[in-house]
Amino acid sequence: MFEHRGGERARAVAERYFRTPTEEDLAEFMATCFPLLNTTRQDPDMLARVILRPEVDVYFTRGEFFSYDWSGELDRIRCPTLILAGELDPVTTVADHEEMAAAINGSTLRVFAEAGHGVFRDRPKEALTVIREFVR
After folding, report:
1. What residue segments make up the domains of the chain, in order of their start?
2. How does pLDDT run along the chain (136 residues), one tens digit per residue?
3. Residues 6+ apart with CB under 8 A from 62
4. Which of 25, 32, 74, 128 has the smallest C-beta neighbourhood within 10 Å, fewest atoms?
5. Whole-angstrom Cα distance, residue 76 to residue 116?
6. Residues 87, 111 contacting (CB under 8 angstroms)
7. Is 97 helix (H, G, I), strand (E, B) or coil?
């Protein structure tokens, strides 16, 4: 999906970072791919409000990012569950969300067209409407 949204360079940057992450690769990923996570323009001050720890991100991406798997536990969820998915999410695909919804008995999956990784950022009014309906 990074290639779909940002071309071959974005795909190459994301692939390099996720295969052999370094702090330098993370910096390039943040500059090239981070803006592609969502379809709407990000708040330019958002990262200024975040304490970034590149060494933690690299450590996580080298290890747990690809090894942890909670899918075997999802069937233990017994409460009503709403799953919001962006059709253009380059990190968690619609197929990933569908798999999660299938594993959680009685869950509700809502896929938002033209939305990326943060549905609430790309489609805030629609997301809030869906959440309100679900809670009611």
Report:
1. 2-66, 71-135
2. 788 888 999 999 999 999 999 999 999 999 999 989 988 887 878 888 988 899 999 999 998 888 888 888 999 999 999 999 999 999 899 999 999 999 999 999 999 999 999 899 999 999 999 999 999 9
3. 21
4. 128
5. 28
6. yes
7. helix
Class of domain 71-135: alpha beta
Is 118 in contact with 38 (CB distance < 8 Å)? Answer: yes
Give the CA angle between residues 119, 122, 124 to the nearest 5°. Answer: 75
Contact between 106 and 81 under an 8 Å Cβ cutoff? The reply is yes
| 85 three-class SS | strand
* Nearest-angstrom CA–CA distance, 36 and 8: 13
Q: What single letter denotes the amino acid at residue 96?
A: D
Q: Which helix (H) or strand (E) holds 111?
A: strand 108-112
Q: What is the pTM of this model?
A: 0.81
> Which 8-state DSSP code applies to residue 25?
H
